[in-house]
Design goal:
Largest sheet: none
Radius of gyration: 34 Å
CATH class: Mainly Alpha
Shape: elongated
Helix content: over 70%
Strand content: under 5%
CATH topology: Ferritin
Structural class: mainly alpha
Amino acid sequence: MPMNSPRELFLHDLRDIYYVEKQLVQLLPKLAQESSDAELKRGFTQHHKETQRHVKNVEAAFKALGERASTEECPGFDGLKEEHDEFMQERPSASVRDMFLSAAAAKTEHYEISAYTSMVAMARSLGEKRVADLLQKNLSDEKETLRKAQAIGRRLGREGAKEQRSATPSRTSSASRSRTGSKRSTSTRSRSTSTGRSTSRSSSRSRARSTR
């Protein structure tokens, strides 16, 4: 179906974000279960409640426009979901999984923020103040969620780096002990060889004197 007007483009975008929000209502409880970090788990649970409100705001926007609420598949969001599903097949450790999930949450929020920012501007240009106000509420929530997701991600990154640094010295120490042992062994062999040579020379001198 041809798209010939700004309103039709706006409705297309509105159907896209409606699809995203409804998908997230189903996915966020699963993400909370996958999280082992308490703060990250709470974040997904809280955003699930916010997303249910976002769905209602988008439905109210459709109603204000005199349109039936309907979805349209969003390839951008589906790509993010596919990335998540493929990563989980790798069976990552709990800490790596949490870092991935916090980053995935931030990516999704960036996508939604971009979409809502564009739609709020378009709704205002179309003179749809009520619609713009409804979508602005969702946009404000998404920005706050992004801030929280990034803060959690930074903390998880620091903790992961600290754990890795703590594990590294043990390997370094082991290698150092191995080198030290090797040096001692070499030194012992050297002294043994030196002693053997000294003994050999003493025996030779003794035989020479005896002959004379």
